[in-house]
């Protein structure tokens, strides 16, 4: 037998040596065990790496309000996300004068203290806070339910909002929709809305926008009718800017913005 690589009778590597090496490969069972061992080692290393890696951080509890600035007497809509699910939190609100009170939504009387809100299964919560005319900056906080009133303790989350009596304007922005003709927008400036066709501007805060109505006068054309072509018909219209009169002739049509109040009745006053 040739010595293929060691000892004094070593001969150069040849095809026979290569064949001899091939004939002495580990059996299939040994190779299978080696593969299983390698897989087991790789799996152990993966588990160890996973345990050592930091987990993905949970969302931080956050409070937000529906808008930044509220008018005196409005209700502040506070929303929370990222809280522990199905958990109750104390929701104190500190006013500009330093007081922490709850305001009765009907009488608008303030009572020292705070209320609570409970998150849902997804960790979301809502809380409404009634304002009663104290202008300035407010801070709403969420604390654990057993919070005892220490404002210097670290809250779970907080949000700041404003109560301001600064003049605001209501814009009823025309949407072009028959079922919902206006979008109500309350802003401090009219910039960008002065020339919008069919927009209605109130220099105040209105709680609603008018409805749109198309008024037309169809005149009878039976043989007995003796209506002159220029016959005029007058209508009393409860418009958004006060009662006014509209005049139409036979077959005439006009598009109106009906007032924001409950009275939306158009009455024909003359020309029957």
Please, could you describe this protein's structure?
- The chain is mainly beta.
- It has two helices and 19 strands.
- The N and C termini lie far apart (131 Å).
Tag the structure with descriptive keywords.
2 helices, three-stranded antiparallel sheet, single chain, disordered N terminus, six-stranded mixed sheet
What does this entry show, briefly?
The protein is mostly beta strands.
Overall 3D form = flat
Briefly note the structural class of the backbone: mainly beta
Q: What's the tally of helices?
A: 2
Q: Portion of residues in helices?
A: 10-25%
Tell me the span between the first and last alpha carbons: 131 Å
Q: Can you tell me the residue ranges where pLDDT is under 50 for at least 5 consecutive residues? A: 1-24
Major β-sheet profile = 6 strands, mixed
Supply Rg: 40 Å
Please write the string of helix (H) and strand (E) elements. HHEEEEEEEEEEEEEEEEEEE
Based on DSSP secondary structure assignment, what is the total number of beta strands? Answer: 19
Overall mean confidence score, pLDDT: 74
- Residue fraction in strands: 35-45%
């Amino acid at each position: 037998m040739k010595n293929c690589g060691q000892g004094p009778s070593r001969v150069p590597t040849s095809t026979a040596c290569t064949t001899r090496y091939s004939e002495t490969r580990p059996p299939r069972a040994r190779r299978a065990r080696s593969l299983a061992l390698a897989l087991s080692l790789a799996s152990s290393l993966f588990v160890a790496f996973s345990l050592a890696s930091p987990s993905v951080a949970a969302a931080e509890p956050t409070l937000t309000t529906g808008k930044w600035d509220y008018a005196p007497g409005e209700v502040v809509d506070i929303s929370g996300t990222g809280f522990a699910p199905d958990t109750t939190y104390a929701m104190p609100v500190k006013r500009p004068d330093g007081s922490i009170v709850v305001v009765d939504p009907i009488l608008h009387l303030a009572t020292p203290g705070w209320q609570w809100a409970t998150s849902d299964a997804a960790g979301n919560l809502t809380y409404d806070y009634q304002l009663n005319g104290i202008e300035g900056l407010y801070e709403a906080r969420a604390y654990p339910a057993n919070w005892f009133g220490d404002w210097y303790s670290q809250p779970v989350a907080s949000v700041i909002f404003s109560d301001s009596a600064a003049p605001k304007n209501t814009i009823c922005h025309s949407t072009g929709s028959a079922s919902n003709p206006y979008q109500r927008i309350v802003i401090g400036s009219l910039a960008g809305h002065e020339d919008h066709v069919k927009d209605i501007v109130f220099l105040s805060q209105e709680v609603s926008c008018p409805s749109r109505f198309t008024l037309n006068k169809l005149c009878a054309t039976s043989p007995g009718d003796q209506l002159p072509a220029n016959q005029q018909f007058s209508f009393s219209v409860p418009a958004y800017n006060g009662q006014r009169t509209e005049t139409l002739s036979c077959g005439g049509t006009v598009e109106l913005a009906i007032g924001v109040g409950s009275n939306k009745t158009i009455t024909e006053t003359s020309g029957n």
